[in-house]
Amino acid sequence: MRIGLRKRLVVWGALLLVCVMQTHSVAQIKVGGNLAPPKPSLVPVHLPDLTELEGDVRSQITTQQNALAEVVRNKTATDAVVSEAYGLMGQTYHAYSLTAPARECYLNASRLTPSDFRWIYLLAKLDQQEGDVAAAIPRFQTAGSLQPKFLAVPVNLGNIYLELNRLEEAKASFVKALENQQGSAAAYYGLGQVALSQRAYAEAINYFQKALAFAPDANRIHYSLAMAYRGLGDSENARAHLAQQGSVGVRVADPLLDGLQELVQGARVHLIRGRVAFEAKRYAEAAAEFRRAVTARPDSIPAHVNLGVALTQTGDLKGALEEFEATLRMDPQNTTAHYNLGVLLARDNKHQQAIPHLQAVSTINPNDFAARLLLVQELLKLDRCAEAAEWQRKLIETATRQGNDDLLNKLRADLQRYENVRPCRPPQVTEP
Amino acid sequence: MKLRYSLCKLASLFSCVSLCVSVNAQISNRTSGAVFDEVAERVGLSFRHYNGMTGKFFLPEIMGAGAALFDYDNDGDLDVFLVQGAVLEPGSKPNGTLFPWRDAESPRGRLFRNDLEIGKDGSRKLHFVDVTEKSGIVANGYGMGVAVGDINNDGWPDLYLTNLGSNQMYLNKGDGTFVDVTKKTGTDDVRWSTSATFVDYDRDGWLDLMVLNYATFSTSSSPNCYAATSARDYCTPRVFAAPGNRLFHNKGDGTFADATISAGVEKEFGHGLGVVADDFNDDGWPDIFVANDGDPNQLWINQKNGTFKNEALLAGVAVNRDGKTEAGMGVDAGDCDGNGTEDIFVTHLMEETHILFTNLGSALFEDRTRESGLGMPGSRFTGFGTLFFDYDNDGWLDLLVVNGAVQLLPELVRKGDPNPLGQPKQLFHNTGKASFVEVSEQAAPGFKLLEVSRGAAFGDIDNDGDTDVLVTNNNGPVRLFLNQAGTRNHWLGLRLIGKNGRDMLGARVDVVINKNRVLRRRTRTDGSYLSANDPRIIVGLGNVMQVEAIRVQWPDGSSEEWKTPSVDRYLVLKQGTGNR
């Protein structure tokens, strides 16, 4: 038997919601004021309501707002200095998806220093994200004229033209991107999409294959390849590529946009850093980051679960158990915490204590084969044969849904033993 | 050959007015103003959705609810059922929630009878009366959606109500009252159900039932989720397990059998929100498309032996054209490009696009969202209820999408909006062959209101030959948009009934204008989001005043034809009365 601790970190991305801020109740909403501009040509920046934000984040934004206000009040500050302050504030807002004040800040920064590529580009990105393509196109064009070698500009433009079904302009933009960087997977992918739109399937396949060659991890390209092969009537190749398709898309390098993530503070950033460290097997560092996330947001379930997993890897099993138990106090149905507790307790030969956790996860998620399998084994260790047989039947149901005939046969044979042999003994079934 | 319409019971099944009165007389009265006129309050449809919002960001609060347009009393006009929410947390009181319920009676789903009066001059007086008490419908669960179908083939439409918790099947007794037959029929599902569809998948003459389930939710285990701002917000469904859907087979004896496993639809599922049954591969057997929120969609192709096989991925409808899984909400199917095959439209989250999957034939689809002009306009809002319908009766199926966010909108928060999820509604005009242009500006002033719209039910409420729209708003009032534009063009209204008077859901109609132009439509009540639509078909004819023939393919596979029908009126086509 090989059942490992569920090391899959709780993915923060699943909990991260896009482009929102919130209020808890109507009465608590405080409509923010605004920061008056130093010149008539600039716009006021409406201050967002920060009351519901994490303490670290609120503090970061407030500090920066104060710094900007100080610069704006300083009549001796040059346009370049004021622009930079607006731009940095805009980036911080942007990093937290506070897009309306971010836009106002970028607008002012851009008006103060029209030749600064960054602000017009980030404004265009905001336009694109919000679907205002009429504004995005000229801004990207301006940005492109300021920094012709910035690859993301023609790729973004190409993608916008694609969405607008302006295929010739899209094609021209992607070709321009290739002139900037010959091995741009994003540009080849865009050209493939243009060809697919035109039902030029062979041409699309050619471009998609090039994109895949330059970005082999971008397994979502296989889906586009499959659709192109299907268009040619080649269902064999189509199915082959569908079997390889995944969730990783093609992405153009965009240091300016990626840099926004560096500005993010609070539990989220610690979770992300912790996950990166964990995946690199730097478990102590990961645990430290996850602990910071717990400190920043004590009610964060991902932070507690991930800390528990990281502590397991560092050998601090007591600490790990505490984190999983803390998780269950907040979320009694949390299957990851139940499962990991079950595994740790089972490893520690605390079968009696492990069983309720494994029963919980097996009940909540009937498709959890590993949990059901471990549960059966724990029951057998305590000679609770009838219960083991009952769960084995449920395990068979799970396996039936998974359609693994070999495994099913083995499970059924084991079931007979649990039903008929006393004392029943642990089986030798391998996790699928 | 003369038409042989089934006129036998039309006076009772369908008002004489709807059969005999041409509405052309009214055309001159139409103004060139907005397409729709919002009249809910004026006509007695006084209803406000209650979602039990607690401030704890429980996902169900923002997902409901739906509505049904159905003629429960068979008097020839569409009545309305509106699904209602309830409190979510055990022990809490409706008047103690964030948006307190003020009525003396607790919130419950309500039935409104349509007392439409049509004057001799063709003028319409629309009025609804709340008949909930008398109806016997006690819908006081946490309501989500509604489906309509005649489960016992008695000619009276029955109701299936989906809830967060036990669902309810209400049998229409034909005397203005309903009886709860959930237990007797064996059609309960205690999970969080959303949309449902009645479909005779095995062609045995009895309507079966497919029920979608969304997420495994309980208030006691709902996690805290956060926005990119770091503030609390609603969770995505991905933090809750998907419970799986359910298919009930109608045994024809007043009971249903759970056919989920035997039919094979338990094998794949996601967070199901939208469902539509249609014959996508043109083999005469109904298939089922399921739109999932954040998971790949399923296209269950009928294997003609009581089982289904999910072919969504190769068919090209599981994900978007980039291979990316999106958040499918509402859905509909219809032939929007006029090529005689059924296309699929799915609404999605803002920053995604809605998707138009055009059917190339044999249930192979292409994502033609960009090419159709639906891409960018759809990316600005989060869409739910939707339908292919020909609002201007020009012969091309248009689209309406009702919107409302699922995560708090920062701009509305900043402005102090107490329910900061509101978004406008959208109308898209099909200028021909699935080329769409947004015409929301001309739709109605009510389209601009920032509301948390969810359900949308479509049908000809005033029987004037065009399609009206009933829109439900989460934590808001219902809206009834009466169509003011459709009867500027010619039209043909069709009700397709079986030998026992049941609406033949799934029946396919080809309206042959000439050999080069055939309009394909179908009888259905499903589609949209959590809602049930008029089973009648309105076929827009533009300036065409004469139709060569109507060909009907019935759900049992048989076909009939009616020659040269009159236009600008409703016709009832009864199975067995056409030319074979």
Describe the structure.
The complex is a heterodimer of chains A (432) and B (580). Chain A is 67% helix and 1% strand. The relative contact order of chain A is 0.07. In chain A, helix 8 (167-180) packs antiparallel against helix 9. Chain A has helices spanning 12-15, 55-73, 79-95, 99-112, 117-129, 133-146, 152-163, 167-180, 185-197, 201-214, 221-231, 235-244, 255-258, 267-279, 283-296, 301-314, 317-330, 335-347, 351-364, 369-381, 385-402, 405-420; strands spanning 16-17, 34-35, 45-46. Chain A is flat. The longest helix of chain A is centred in the N-terminal third of the chain and has 19 residues, at 55-73. Chain A has a two-stranded antiparallel sheet with strand order 2-3. With 580 residues, chain B is mainly β. Chain B contains ten helices and 38 strands. Chain B has a four-stranded antiparallel β-sheet, with no helix packed on it. Chain B has a four-stranded antiparallel β-sheet with strand order 2-3-4-7. A four-stranded antiparallel β-sheet of chain B has the order 11-12-15-16, with no helix packed on it. In chain B, strand 21 (331-334) and strand 22 form a beta hairpin. The model of chain B is unreliable at 1-31 (pLDDT under 50). Chains A and B meet through strand 1, helix 9, helix 11 and helix 12 of A and strand 13, strand 14 and helix 9 of B. Strand 1 of chain A pairs parallel with strand 13 (225-227) of chain B, so a sheet runs across the interface.
Summarize the structure.
The complex is a heterodimer of chains A (432) and B (580). Chain A has 22 helices and 3 strands.
Write down the overall mean pLDDT of chain B.
91
**Quaternary organisation of the protein chains:** heterodimer
State Rg of chain A. 28 Å
Tell me about the largest β-sheet of chain A: 2 strands, antiparallel
Order of helices and strands of chain A: HEEEHHHHHHHHHHHHHHHHHHHHH
What form of chain B results from the Cα inertia axes?
globular
Mean pLDDT over the full residue set of chain A? 86
- The dominant shape of chain A is flat
Helix/sheet category of chain B? mainly beta
The CA-CA distance between the termini of chain B, in Å, is 13 Å
Distance between the termini of chain A: 10 Å
